[in-house]
Design a protein that fits this description.
25 strands; alpha/beta; six-stranded mixed β-sheet; five-stranded antiparallel β-sheet; single chain; 25 helices
């Protein structure tokens, strides 16, 4: 048994998404604010602790609908015969989590209570968890009463105000709680609870346009009475905030150690104590191997009691001289009660060995809080994983207690572990070690290693490209941000990357190997720039830094891919929906010479040898056509949120001397395009770079643009191996800001800059809308007699 997928609806920015779970490890990736955390929080709220729900967990775009329900209720007034038999008007905004299990027929006895019909013969079984009103009639009545009380209070205040001063305005800027249903729910969300419903496995539908299609519940659907996942799923979680703090600036005296225990919450010592209590403590369900330890503790207790009697004897005798205790009063006596775990109840229970003297066997140790946060986090997470596993498998005392309390085997067939942002405080290498080993740790038990009956599923959310690099692409789920549209707030889609890389064709293999080797940061970027070669890879970031500060502040992923391979990334970029600029070369060639390179010219029936131009954008082959294509025709738009633009060399007006009429220059690669855009700079440039110096010489010797065209093309074609050095030499210029960006690259960066500005504007508008809504519905001027 395992979880095949979950579908989340109306939870924060997850309007309607499906997240497929792999059989072992599933890793949630995506740019900042893309919904990864929302998904982890949804799993926590629905499956672990429903008391953590707040009104902010409802998708913001649903608030207007919620308030409109309240307005309709208020207009209808409070009627004793008012009845509600279903939740149709609420269902479109209620937070929902559908969990789809995959079970085999031999597991029927475990899932019998989940079957919607007797037709099930193995496969999917679904349960809907919905956060909804406990009793809709009670919600209706309490809301109407609260609104009536608020209105009556204001009316009375206006009446009193008019009596005191008939000429004064009876308007009040202040409003009383609740002025809307959303504001009412902020204080009355206790009237909501999670209810579970069976789903029909015959009505499962795949996502459409990135949105999950959850099946509608029947109007007469009744919630399940018991917890549907009791004895089926065990869930454990490691939060992103793991409770560590740096205590190296604080020392504890012996007197302070007891008080300092409150500071130990979440630290390694506390984890060790908890593990000891559950699995090792000899005082719990002791067996023969525990008797010796218990005997030692008992003898120590007797010896300590005797020491206490001796130490306090004089104090008790002095007390008796005061007449108490008297003859008829009970005598005072001290008695200790030692527990095995007491030895771990102090801040220095766990220490790190700094060095060890072999001759004397003496170790130099430091308390745990003197070690780095990285090591503390790593040890803590690994220990928690081991604790989760051992508690699930009822290792040690926990197992003996379970069997005493019940004769039935209570080990759940499915163990789900949630880990949020394990990369916090960890170095790159440690991040990679953790994600490689985490699942193996959870399965490191004799009953788990080779068992198909007990399933472990690890769900990890991360911002780390290094963690993504260590995972198979079939384990990655990409959260794609979708900007606000049509008055909505930004939402997210979830892409199963196994759908892209799961095929065995050569393109999928090439893309997966390339991304895995170099660019897992693509999964966390705001936009992507694909460049042709080393020169562009080095200089384009420089152009952005010096001329596009807003782009420089964005998360851009720069991929260096030759023009013959860039088109292979189309499927991946289409799935990610990542705004992309393709900077490539026009690569002019002679069709009669088996695509041998030729200087680009008009009217000579030349073609491009660049596969990206021929197969992706603009799907043209002739040089004459490529040189006449306008800006909009260089953009491929999939939808209003995702587009790709191509940038390749264009004809530019060029003059060698002031006063000369401009003549057309057509570049074939980045280097000659740079020359045509920086003629004045190169005329007076002194450099030691081989290719750059030769270009300067050609510019200085040229007597016409036509000659310059010919000489520069042949120079670059003959010195292709020096292109990287050419770019480095440019970066070493005394004033790199003086470089003029080749026009075709500038045109592309201008387009990307506008796309990023629009995206940020959408995000900002959404934030302003959300804030305005919050202020309007839950405003600062709302009061019930006390200041908010």
């Amino acid at each position: 048994m395992r979880i095949a997928f979950v579908e989340i609806q109306n939870f924060r920015k997850l309007k309607s998404v499906r997240i497929d779970f792999s059989k072992d490890t599933t890793v949630l990736v995506g740019a900042n604010n893309s919904g990864k955390t929302s998904a982890m929080v949804a799993l926590n709220h629905f499956l672990i602790d429903q008391s953590t729900f707040t009104t902010n967990d409802f998708t913001l775009s649903g608030w207007a609908t919620i308030n409109s329900i309240g307005e309709r209720w208020e207009k209808s007034g409070l009627r004793e015969n008012w009845e509600v038999t279903e939740l149709a008007e609420w269902s479109q905004v209620l937070p929902t989590l559908d969990i789809w299990l995959h079970a085999e027929t031999f597991e029927l006895y475990r899932v019998l209570h989940l079957l919607p019909s007797v037709e099930w013969t193995g496969g999917l079984l679904g349960v809907r968890l919905r956060f909804e009103p406990k009793l809709i009639l009670d919600l209706y009545k309490e809301y109407i009463l609260a609104r009536n009380e608020a209105k009556n209070t204001l009316a009375e205040a206006k009446r009193i105000k008019q009596q005191k001063n008939p000429t004064a305005s009876d308007d009040y800027l202040v409003s009383l709680w609740p002025k809307s249903m959303c504001e009412f729910l902020e204080r009355r969300l206790r009237m909501f609870a999670i209810k579970a419903y069976k789903l029909d496995f015959t009505k499962v539908q795949g996502p459409q346009n990135g949105l999950a299609r959850l099946q509608a519940l029947a109007q007469d659907a009744a919630p399940m009475v018991d917890d549907p996942f009791k004895d089926l799923i065990r869930i454990d979680k490691i939060d992103a905030h793991r409770g560590f703090s740096n205590l190296t600036s604080r020392r504890f005296s012996d007197e302070e150690e007891e008080d300092s225990e409150r500071m130990e919450k979440g630290k390694l010592s506390e984890q060790l104590r908890q593990y000891y209590k559950k699995h090792i403590d000899p005082s719990k369900v002791p067996d023969a191997s525990d008797v010796d330890a218990l005997e030692a503790i008992h003898l120590a207790q007797l010896q300590f009691d005797e020491k206490l009697k001796t130490g306090f004897k004089s104090k008790f005798e002095e007390l008796e001289k005061l007449g108490y205790p008297g003859v008829t009063d009970p005598q005072l006596e001290l008695s200790t009660r030692l527990k095995p775990v007491d030895g771990l109840n102090h801040p220095s229970a766990l220490k790190f060995i700094v060095s060890r003297e072999e001759k004397t066997a003496v170790s130099i140790t430091l308390p745990e809080y003197y070690n780095g946060l990285g090591y503390q986090n790593l040890i803590s997470m690994v220990f928690k994983l081991m604790s989760f596993r051992d508690h699930w498998m009822q290792v040690g005392k926990a197992g003996k207690q379970a069997h005493i309390l019940s004769s039935q085997d209570k080990i759940e067939p499915l163990h789900m572990v949630l880990v949020e942002e394990p990369e916090a405080h960890l170095h790159v290498q440690v991040q990679q070690v953790f994600i490689r080993r985490a699942y193996d740790i959870l399965r490191n038990h004799d009953s788990l290693r080779n068992s198909n009956l007990l399933c472990t599923q690890l769900i990890v959310s991360t911002h780390s490209s290094h963690i993504a690099h260590e995972c198979d692409f079939g384990q990655l789920r990409y959260f794609r941000r979708r900007p606000a549209a049509n008055g909505e707030v930004p939402i997210s889609n979830v892409i199963n990357l196994s759908e892209i890389f799961g095929t065995e064709d050569d393109t999928a293999k090439f893309v997966s190997r390339y991304i895995k080797a170099t660019h897992c940061d693509l999964f966390f970027a705001d936009a992507a720039i694909v460049v042709e070669g080393a020169a562009e890879r080095m200089l384009v970031p420089h152009f952005i830094k010096e001329h596009y500060p807003e782009l420089h502040q964005s998360y851009l992923s720069l991929l260096e891919i030759g023009g013959s391979h860039a088109f292979r990334f189309k499927n991946l970029l289409d799935h990610l929906g990542l705004v992309t600029l393709l900077i490539t070369d026009i690569d002019s060639a002679d069709p009669a010479g088996h695509h041998a390179g030729r200087q680009p010219k008009r009217g000579e029936n030349l073609i491009t040898s660049n596969s990206t131009l021929k197969k992706w954008i603009p799907k043209k082959e002739k040089i004459d056509e490529l040189l006449t294509i306008k800006g909009d025709d260089k953009v491929a738009t999939t939808d209003e949120f995702y587009s790709v633009r191509i940038a390749y060399q264009l004809s530019v007006p060029c003059t060698l001397k002031d006063g000369d009429a401009p003549q057309e220059a057509i570049a074939n690669s980045f280097e000659d395009a740079f020359v045509y855009s920086n003629i004045d700079l190169l005329k007076g440039l002194t450099t030691e770079g081989v290719l750059l110096k030769r270009c300067c010489d050609v510019v200085q010797a040229a007597t016409s643009v036509e000659q310059l065209n010919f000489d520069i093309y042949n120079l670059i074609a003959a010195n292709g191996k020096l292109k990287g050095e050419f770019a480095l030499d440019l970066l070493f210029l005394q004033d790199p800001k003086s470089l003029t960006i080749p026009f075709y690259i500038k045109e592309g960066l201008d387009w990307l800059h506008e796309k990023i500005k629009i995206k940020r504007k959408d995000d900002l508008n959404a934030a302003i809308t959300a804030t305005s809504t919050a202020i309007k519905d839950n405003g600062n001027n709302t009061t019930d007699g006390t200041a908010n």
